[in-house]
Each structure stands twice: as C-alpha cells, then as structure tokens.
Amino acid sequence: MNVLSIVSEVFPLIKTGGLADVAGALPKALRPHGISVLTLVPGYPQVLERLPGRAEIGHIDDLLGHRAVVFRAEADGLDLLVLDVPELYQRAGGPYLDHHGRDHPDNWLRFAVLSLAGARIALGALPIGGADIVHVHDWQSALTPVYLRYAFRSALPVVCTIHNLAFQGQFSFDIAGLLQLPPAALGFDCLEYYGAVGYLKGGILCSDVVTTVSPTYAREILSPDLGMGLDGVLQERRSALYGIVNGIDSDIWNPASDPVIPKQYDARSLARRQDNRAAVLERFGLTDANGPLFAALTRLTWQKGADLFPEAAEEIMLHGGQLVICGQGDAEIEAALRQCAARHPDRVSVHIGFTEDLAHLIVSGCDVLIQPSRFEPCGLTQLYAMRYGAIPLVGRTGGLSETIIDANDAATARGVATGFQFHPVDAHSFREAVRRACEAFADHEAWASLQRQAMKADFSWDRSASQYAQLFEALHAAWKKSVDGV
C-alpha cells in the first residue's frame, strides 16, 4: 500500500513543533506493516539545504497561477517529495511566520498550493504513479481532500489528522474565488465558516476518516469548551473520528545511545544522570542548590500554561529547588519570565529559543519536567521526559492525562506511578503539585524507583502505527471494493 503524506513540516528537515516529529517518525513505523509512505513537503530554504542530492522528477503547472518543480530525495529513512515554488516557500523566517514573528500574509495561497499539488500527485500527475491513501495533517494540507472531492470528483481515501484544533487556517472569504474550486465547495457544507474560509473545516468534512492524537482529546474536542468552534462539525463526523496516541522515535530519543548528551545511561545506571544534571545547570548559568531541578521545555503561550511559571518558581524555591525554562512564544510571557529570572538569578534561568540538542540535554539532566497545559492534544515532551528519567508534572488534560500515571498513594504503593498530574490548571493546583513532587524528591530511593518506572513505559510507535495501519487497510479495502464494483 502506498500512502502520500502531505505535511507543512517534517523532522529532521524543518520543525516548529510535534507535527514535525510525528511526520518524521510515523512513516518509518508503518514500514513493517507493508505500508510505504511518500512525504510531500514544501521547498523551504531549510529543506533544500538539507537535501543536496535531490533529483528532479517532474513539474506541475497551474497551481493557482504558480508552477512547481518536484524533487525526490531520501533523508533519515524518509522517502520525500519536495514542492519547489521559490516565490512561495523560499523566504526568510519560518514555515508560517516571517522574521518579525508575523504570519506570512499569503499563507492562504502557500498552503492551498501545497494541498492542490498533493491532490494532483495523489492522482498520478507525476511519473511515479498515484497513491492508494492520502494522509493530510492539520489545516496546512486540509484542502487536499476538498480538491479531490470537488475539483477532481475523486473518491480516493483520505485520512485527516488534527494535531491541534486551535490552528484552523481561517481566512477572509475574499480568497474564495481564487482557490479554483466550484461554488459548491465554498458553501456552508464545506469551506464557509462564519463568513470566512475554513481550511480545516473543509478537510474534516471531506475526509473519510478524521484522527487526532489521543482518545481523550478526541472526546474533548466534541465539546464547546475545547471544540474551538468546530465541535458541531466534529459531532457531525463523530462516527469517523478516532483518537490514536502519538509515539516517539525511540532510536532518536534513547538515553543509552544519545550522542548529544554528556553521559549516556539507562534505568540501571541512573547515577550517571548527575553529570547531565551538572551540564544543564552550567548551560543555564546556575550553581547547584542541591534541591530538585525543575525544567520547562515548551512554547511560552497561555495554552501551555507558561504564564503560571513564575508562581511555580516561587513554590520550587520554597523547597530549595531551581527552575530552568527553554522556549519562545508570547512576548508578554517571555518578558515576565525574564523578570522572574532577574529577581532570582541563582534559582531561575530562562533561555528564549529552542534547539534539538538543548532539548535532549534538558530531559537528560532535569529532575522534573513541568507541562501545565490548559489543553494538550497529545504532547510529546512528557514522553521524551519519561524515556530519560525526568519525571513529568502535567495538567490533567488530553494526551497528558492518558500518558502519565499520577503518583498518588495507591499508584505509588503499587509501583506503577510515572509522574504527577493536577487539575484544574490554575496557580493553586500547580503549586500543590510542585509541593508533592518536591516532597517525593526528598526520598531518594523512592524517587529512583519512580524514575525507573517512568523509563519502563513504552511509547514507541509500534502500537499506534498498528492502529494507523488497520485504518489505512480498511479504507483501502473499501475503496478497492467500490472501484472494482464488487
């Protein structure tokens, strides 16, 4: 079975968040199931730079007034197609934002072109042949099933995965006539959304199956509270909605073989983590206070609960601990965190920015990783943390509630706890959870037991890839049956 995956970012070529990690890991996990995945990604400068051996395999004309050259390449076990449209993708900044942190004003066009190209490639526009299944991710490729259904009248099976419903690709209805779609696609039953154009809404309605990245999040987004205005649309597709927990690439995220961290270790050699802990403190300019070392490795946004970090810092310091923060996001939150670090220079340190190497270092050396998300579709950072023996402290929502077993008395007594949960996500509950973690850290033998239990948790892609494979196989069988007229 051949799957065409259409994504706006993919690790290790370009990454802004967990979408890239999933897009980079799932194709490799599907291979043992007999499923070949070809990944289509825009030709950003960062992508082209990393693929010097790419080979041109064709071109596609009339992509909303643009012409694309398509390259094929391999990287890190991935089979890739690169859509090269220099005037759309080769520019300063990131995939979605310019170097000032503002949305590229033509994002509606950049990702409509990606989606239209994906639809044509899936239908055989290139010499490599077409696809058996199309897999689109988030709003950036959600127009692909719309083009397939409305522009090409194709019933080719499509799976649409929602990684974060908060980002929906909503644009002024002024662009509607520029998308080269028939009028029926622009109405309420497809793209029209409160007088605007909603890319993700169209993708949800036109795909055969909609998945999201945890069963809990699949339930949460059916409610007005977390449905982000699309709960009614999702209720309509409820029978086609599945929650599949993300996995992690256990080869890349493995403390026993990680080439980035100062000292490699496993659950039987936890004492070696102390060298990594010392390296984290040195990297953040802190002297060891001999208390628990907390860390935050996240986007600095309200969704992620980053506005609560100063409150958490106060509680951490009350118990002799320290806090390091790595991330970027809202300017006001960044400023508040810098002020917190300035008030407590020996206990709190903030790094605005993100690198993969620093992420590996932090999870290899911190004692507790805090993730107080107000909503979290799945979350990968807590999975990386457990793999490395850093104990997660998380808000009880979405995938965080499914992947962490709270260290309450019963779970601790049974030896199954893997972290700390709290609810509701507010300053009081957060501080209470920090206090619980600090008290647990004081018992070194019990803490080591908690670390070993967390490291035993299996969050590889094996089980999740099997679930995706079953979905793909069922869709492909049903499509073949309809095409063959059986």
Automatic annotation (TrEMBL):
The pathway is: Glycan biosynthesis; glycogen biosynthesis
Recall the GO molecular function terms of this protein's record: alpha-1,4-glucan glucosyltransferase (ADP-glucose donor) activity
Annotated Pfam families: Glyco_transf_5 (PF08323), Glycos_transf_1 (PF00534)
> What residues does ADP-alpha-D-glucose bind to?
15
Q: Which UniProt keywords apply?
A: Glycogen biosynthesis, Glycosyltransferase, Transferase
Catalytic activity, as annotated = [(1->4)-alpha-D-glucosyl](n) + ADP-alpha-D-glucose = [(1->4)-alpha-D-glucosyl](n+1) + ADP + H(+)
InterPro entries tied to this protein: Glyco_trans_1, GS/SS, Starch_synth_cat_dom
Q: Which PANTHER family match?
A: ALPHA AMYLASE DOMAIN-CONTAINING PROTEIN, GRANULE-BOUND STARCH SYNTHASE 1, CHLOROPLASTIC/AMYLOPLASTIC
Report the sequence similarity comment from the record: Belongs to the glycosyltransferase 1 family. Bacterial/plant glycogen synthase subfamily.
Record-given protein name: Glycogen synthase
Origin species, per record, is Shinella pollutisoli
Gene of this entry: glgA
